[in-house]
Amino acid sequence: MFKVGFEAEKESMKCFRCDLGFWDVCYTTETNCSLGEVCFTGRGKAGDSLDIKTLGCVRAEECGVETTVELFMDKTIFVMTRHCCGTSFCNSAQELQISTFFYLTVAALATWHLTETPAASC
């Protein structure tokens, strides 16, 4: 079992929480962890194409451990690994913010290019 070297803080840690997200889309709220818990980002895969994401608090002993989870009533099974960090709100989706900025930039450039291109004469 993989142990993470996080020491319990004197105050509870604050983390982002998302019970279930697909790919990098995850509705997040803020949550207060219990003493001895750390923030985590859980990543898993259902089938060959469905990426699952969760965020929240977990005991340090559960970090880096691969677990099998049942999803929905049809008992779709996926494998999830929780990646932990040791400061408040460290489980933010920074990669989502960077990719969102990239996609918005590409969309703006494409829109600009389409509006600047002269219309073809008939």
From TrEMBL:
GO terms for cellular component: plasma membrane; side of membrane. Residues 12-93 form the UPAR/Ly6 domain. It comes from the Eukaryota. Keywords: Cell membrane, Disulfide bond, Glycoprotein, GPI-anchor, Lipoprotein, Membrane, Signal. InterPro entries: LY6_UPA_recep-like, Snake_toxin-like_sf, SPACA4/Bouncer. Coiled coil: none annotated. SUPFAM superfamilies: Snake toxin-like (SSF57302). It is found in: Cell membrane. It is a lipid-anchor; GPI-anchor. GO terms for biological process: sperm-egg recognition. Its main location: membrane. Belongs to the SPACA4/bouncer family. This is UPAR/Ly6 domain-containing protein. The lineage of its organism: Eukaryota, Metazoa, Chordata, Craniata, Vertebrata.
